[in-house]
Specification:
InterPro entries: Cell_div_FtsQ/DivIB_C (IPR005548), FtsQ_DivIB (IPR050487), POTRA (IPR034746), POTRA_FtsQ_type (IPR013685). It is found in: Membrane. With 261 residues, this protein is of the alpha/beta class. The chain folds into three domains: 49 residues; 69 residues, Ubiquitin-like (UB roll); 115 residues, Cell division protein FtsQ/DivIB (Rossmann fold, 3-Layer(aba) Sandwich), CATH 3.40.50. The protein has seven helices and twelve strands. β11 and β12 form a beta hairpin. The longest helix is centred in the N-terminal third of the chain and has 49 residues.
């Protein structure tokens, strides 16, 4: 009997020792609450920081946009014209239609280019914004290389056979007699490949199709050139033929040239 009582007492003591202390439980809960609160406060601070940074970015972008679109700091105060030799710069500026004081970013460069390309003597144009306050117009003029009769007047032609401007007199320009720009361009291309001496003596280049280009020289002699092919060979043969008497020199087939009296 005594042994059994001692065993029960031992068991009871062990059970009491294993029970958690209420004070320890309270401390653990307090620690967990503190950590959780710290994490929440940390997340809150990060959210505020991110929001503030985002607001600053938005304000910066808005500020830059305002400066570019509305501020006089980047408004056009001069329009520079480059590349012209015969066209007056003031004529180019007027055709561009750009008002001084307009912010650079608000200028439609494509529209300005279209306005300038509509000028008869302008071949191409590039419009550039140059910060802070300059607009640059780079113009390539159409160069008159020949002239053609249009009704009762003369008109200058560029290398594409297209009309540039009217003239009272042809002057020293070679005459191109052809109805369409495409054929005129071929006639001009033939003239450009002639030997220098022959080119200088040519006063008229005529053609009705791309295959029947004919030259009229200053002394009245004519050269049947044909198409644009084998230009170098034709030029070599023609130089020799022109040393012989004749009125019509046919080099359209340069391996079988002919001379007609």
């Amino acid at each position: 009997m005594t042994d059994t009582s001692m065993t029960d007492t031992s068991t009871t003591d062990t059970s009491t020792t294993d029970m958690p202390d209420p004070a320890d439980l309270a401390d653990a809960r307090a620690a967990r609450s503190t950590r959780s609160g710290g994490r929440s406060r940390g997340r809150g601070r990060r959210a505020v920081t991110i929001a503030a940074a985002g607001l600053l970015v938005v304000l910066a972008v808005a500020g830059v946009a305002w400066v570019l679109l509305f501020s006089s700091l980047v408004a056009v105060d001069r329009v520079t014209v480059l590349g012209t030799s015969t066209l007056p710069a003031d004529e180019i500026r007027a055709a561009a239609g750009v008002n001084l004081g307009t912010p650079l970013a608000r200028i439609d460069v494509d529209t300005v280019a279209q306005r300038l390309n509509s000028l008869p003597r302008v071949g191409s144009v590039e419009v550039r914004r140059s910060l802070p306050r300059e607009l640059v117009l780079i113009v390539i003029e159409r160069v008159a290389v020949a002239a053609t009769r249009v009704g009762g007047r003369w008109s200058t032609l560029d290398s594409r056979g297209e009309e540039i401007a009217s003239l009272r007199e042809r002057g020293t320009l070679v005459e191109v007699a052809a109805d369409r720009a495409e054929i005129r361009a071929i006639a001009i291309a033939v003239w450009a490949t002639l030997p220098a001496k022959v080119s200088a003596e040519t006063v008229v280049v005529s053609a009705s199709t791309r295959d029947d280009v004919t030259l009229t020289l200053r002394d009245g002699r004519r050269v049947v050139w044909g198409d644009v092919s084998r230009a170098e060979r034709k030029g070599v043969v023609l130089r020799t033929l022109l040393t012989r008497p004749g009125s019509v020199y046919d080099v359209s087939a340069p391996d079988l040239p002919t001379i007609r009296p």
